[in-house]
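Course assignment 3, question 2. Fill in each field.
Student: A.L.
Task: Predict the tertiary structure for the chain below.
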Amino acid sequence: MSKREKLFIFFVLLVALCLRLLWIFHLDNNVDVWGDWWDEIASNLISGKGYMIDNPFNPGDTPYYSWRPPAFPIFLAGIYATFGHNFLYAKIGLALLSTLSVLIGYLVAKKLFNPFTGILTTIGMAIYPTFIFFTGYLAPETLTLFLILLTIFYLTGCIDHSNSIYTLLAGLSLGCAVMCRTTMALFFCFILIWFFLVVKNKQEIWKKFFIIVAGMLIVILPWVVRNYRIHRTIVFHSTDAGQALFINNNPESFRIEPSGTAFIYDSSEFLHISEVETTKIFKRRAKDFIINHPATYIKYVGKRFLNFWRPIPYRISGPGKAYSYLHQIISGIYTVPVFIFAILGLLYSIKNWRKLFILYALIIYYSGTYILVRAIIRYRMPIEPYLIMFAAYGISVLWQNNISKIRT
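Answer field:
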């Protein structure tokens, strides 16, 4: 990287951080409008109560100890332990993570595509409104995006380096991503396929794969062992998984509002029963609905596909208050062009499909998992850096073609 290029990237990163801080400082940082138990878990951790929340169905009943995946609450707890219970510092932490993601996005795009695509990617990620917006709220999307992007960065590094450190770091970061969003739990299968496509020394494939799996387990096993000691049963993910599945797979899901997150239950039936049994009940009801209403489930999957990929949010949702018409207009203005150029980039990049398979797999796997289970528009955010990369590549090809025509 030349000195001029380093200065340019530094300037872009400075702009990215300033935009995020300006957005954060204009918000009311004395309240957490997001809620969703993340702050409660982090607060209990630093106060010595442990990883727990008050019973979400019957307040005052037996506390829940595994209700959310641990990565984001631990991130918040680290900030709270250092700076005190302060929402502003937590958001600044998210702004720094988001800015670092801009740098990693540049490095990944430069590696998988070309330097010009890397430049366009870092500019796009720096000013992308969705990334800026979510630094202002205590939600796990910014951390999820960072951890997945970090995993891809290390994966691209371990292909060209015989040193196992890149491979181990890829496994560790993937394990952290799983602990942030359990959706990533099976992504290692696609990594193995990618290795077979791009690793020249076939004898190295299984070595790299086992190191990645080992790295994942180093991160994940402490959570599983801890849960077993508490619940006396294997809890790999979190005990909100059953409710998450039931929310989007029940008779009321799409009857009340279009995002498909409506559900009805009687909280008294969960009184004095364990959180493990509660999640089993919700899972069983969701599975029964899917099995007994396959046609409705297929319709739900279609609606979730549209919800996941829709360019504008519904006005019935939003952090603290519903999104406005202005939110919808701005979202459409920047999302639609990214989608269009990303499709062009995907078409132009087919010739390099082996190298880019890891990105294809990530986009399809991540979106497909949510679409089959539960999908709303903000869940798309962690894979949007790769849409920006493909869009940047599409723009770069068009630019180069136009320059060639002018010269001839």
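Instructor remarks: The mean pLDDT is 94. The chain has one domain: 3-407.
Grade: pending
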